[in-house]
Amino acid sequence: MDFEHVTFQTLFNVALALISFGLGFIVNRVFNKMDELTKQDALLTKEIYSIKIALPTNYVTKDQLDVMGGALFKKLDAISNKLDKKMDKP
């Protein structure tokens, strides 16, 4: 090959083509990754929405909890008294 006839314009064109190819490749990869992340985001959004639907809608109020706790402690006290009576017997 005869490189004596290679001009500055030819070298510039080759360099510009290589740089353009590299940048185009990088931009293509970035857009492909963005598409993948968008798909993953949509899947996660659906999963979160399904979890949100599965959560209970009615919670126990403080008054209901106090009533339930009181009944529970009465039962525990009754069991404790029965055990104490058994322990007192010879």
Tell me about this structure.
It is a single chain. The chain has two domains: 1-55; 58-90. It has helices at residues 8-54, 62-88. The longest helix has 47 residues, at 8-54. The protein is rod-shaped and about 120 Å long. The chain is mainly α.
Concise description?
With 90 residues, the chain is an all-alpha fold.
Order of helices and strands: HH
Q: Quick one: how many beta strands? A: 0
Strand content: under 5%
Q: Portion of residues in helices?
A: over 70%
What's the mean pLDDT score? 89
Give the count of structural domains.
2
The poorly predicted ranges are none
Helix run count: 2
Sheet bearing the most strands, described?
Answer: none
Q: Over all CA atoms, what is the radius of gyration?
A: 38 Å
Give the class from helix and strand content and strand pairing.
mainly alpha
Distance between the ends: 116 Å
- Coarse morphology: rod-shaped
